[in-house]
Specification:
This protein is of the alpha/beta class. Helices cover 43% and strands 14% of the residues. The chain is built from 11 helices and 8 strands. The two termini are 24 Å apart.
């Protein structure tokens, strides 16, 4: 698969981030814990520059816990502040607010010395499409103030949302970068839904996901779908076995590869296949 993706609104979003950076005290960069490297837009660091930043690894309930710890050390060794969360968990809000106040403690104290006791902290949240920004914002605000959905591109424009702890958050649309030099990165983004399924060959994407999961641990597929996997089996052989086991057969006894691929992708994205990290350090 050759995946490239750079619609016009991505460039507009990049310009939006640059324009509004001066309005905020801190940037929250949201990554997908299953693919921390692939979900980290290489343009973001250049845009943020020296502005205080907090990296939040979302969907950590869907990724391997040991790998989570390895990535935490990886990013902290580079001088980043890192939190692992599940954006659906209400406790995440308190953890994030507390960390923002800790990172900006010196700035808050200086304002208090000037007699400003209840100054507003302004934060900007950035990340790729479908990484969970809107869900996290709803959790942080305690209300359904942002549109959410499992399709990239739901958030269309900027909006300020009031949070607890005197924090105002600027939401921005998800932003990808211009060209994927590494097709493994592109596949990781496609597996997790950061790239719209409509522009992809879903059958091939499902096949590639089978191959990737098999490389990680073929028992994930064996246990979930009740199949046997022989050493000589190709990814397509495994896909056939899953389809036959599930009864995904269409007329003339042909395998329904589209349905099989959609089930595989859906069950991976929902965590039904288990806690899977697609990347390792």
């Amino acid at each position: 698969m050759n995946i490239n993706w750079y619609p016009g609104h991505m460039k507009k979003t990049k310009d939006l981030l640059k324009e509004n950076l001066k309005l905020v005290d801190i940037v929250i960069e949201l990554l997908d814990a299953r693919i921390p490297l692939s979900s980290k837009n290489p343009d973001i660091d250049g845009i943020v520059n020296n502005k205080p930043k907090l990296i939040i690894m979302n969907k950590s309930d869907l990724s391997d816990e040991k790998t989570n710890l390895e990535f935490k050390k990886h990013f902290e060794d580079k001088g980043n502040k890192v939190l692992f969360i599940n954006s659906l968990n209400r406790r995440s809000a308190d953890i994030i607010v507390k960390e923002i106040n800790r990172i900006l403690a010196d700035k808050i104290e200086k304002k208090k010395e000037k007699g400003i006791k209840h100054s507003v902290i302004r934060a900007m949240i950035v990340g790729i499409p479908n990484v969970g920004k809107s869900t996290l914002i709803n959790t942080l605000s305690g209300r359904k103030g942002a549109k959410t959905g499992n399709r990239p591109g739901v958030t269309k424009g900027k909006q300020w949302i009031k949070l607890k702890g005197n924090i105002e958050l600027l939401d921005t649309p998800g932003i990808l970068w211009g060209k994927f030099e590494d097709q493994d990165i592109a596949l990781n983004l496609a597996f997790t839904g950061a790239i719209k399924d409509e522009i992809l060959d879903i059958e091939t994407l499902g096949l590639r996901l089978i191959e990737r999961i098999r490389d990680i641990d073929e028992n994930i597929l064996i246990n979930r779908y009740g199949i046997d996997i022989d050493e000589s089996d190709t990814g397509l052989d495994i896909m056939d076995k899953i389809a036959i086991k599930r009864g995904f057969i269409i007329k003339n006894k042909e395998i329904d590869y589209m349905r099989t691929a959609n089930i595989l992708l859906d069950e991976f994205r929902k965590g039904i296949l288990g806690k899977i990290s697609l990347e390792k350090i």
